Amino acid sequence: MSLYPQLNFPRYSFRLRSCGGTNRIWDDIRKVWLVLTPEEWVRRHVVRWLVEERGVTPQLIVQEHPVDVNGQPQRADVVVFGTSDARPLLLVECKEPGVRISQDVYAQAVRYNAFLKARYIMMTNGLRHYIYEMGADGSYSMLTEFPDLP
Predict the structure, then answer these.
(1) Pick from 42, 108, 117: nearest CA to 79
(2) Which residues does 33 contact at the CB level (< 8 Å), separation at least 6?
(3) What distance in Å separates the CA atoms of residue 101 and residue 141, rounded to the nearest whole number?
(4) Cα–Cα distance for residue pair 24/15, rounded to 1 Å
(5) Distance between CA atoms of 103 and 97, rounded to whole angstroms?
(6) Rounded to 5, what percent of the chain is helix, strand, coil?
(7) Which one of 15, 39, 144, 146 is separated from 130 by 20 to 30 angstroms, measured CA to CA?
(8) Tens of pLDDT along 19-65?
(9) Distant-in-sequence, close-in-space partners of 20: CB < 8 Å, separation ≥ 6
């Protein structure tokens, strides 16, 4: 499993297995084995970090949340919902470690958030993380620290 580098998250232990020559990783929230791609490696770290380090209740996390972008079905990697109103609070777009978090990635997250209207968007490749807050006017401001999620 050495194809999956140490990311800029705490070290976590994951349940891994090889099945028919395909590496798989256990998703603790959905209770399923997933194909272990480099992007999935990042997603598993993000979800674990949100739960263990940021105190997000696992039941408030939805992975591969459907998003309609101009009539085209898409999926947001991770969406965290608020506890009081069940509205999206955080949208996370994950990329594999070799993909640079570029203006295109930012634009993708903003497109998805035009539908979701989460207060925060985060983009990560597991090595670099960027977090933005959406203002009342729909503009985004980069944050220097990850916010406390209510």
Answers:
(1) 117
(2) 17, 19, 24, 25, 26, 27
(3) 16
(4) 8
(5) 16
(6) 20, 35, 45
(7) 15
(8) 888 999 999 999 999 999 999 999 999 999 999 999 999 999 999 99
(9) none
Residue type, 9: F
Structure tokens, 30: 């959905």
Six-digit token pair at 2? 């050495």
CATH class of 16-133: alpha beta
Of 96, 59, 104, the residue nearest 79 (C-alpha): 59
Phi, psi of 9 (to 5 degrees): -140, 165
Question: What predicted TM-score, i.e. pTM, was given to this entire model?
Answer: 0.92
Q: How would you classify the pairing of strands 120-124 and 88-94?
A: parallel
Give phi and psi for 93, each to the nearest 5. Answer: -105, 120
Q: Please check whether residue 128 is in contact with residue 98, taking contact to mean a CB–CB distance below 8 angstroms.
A: no
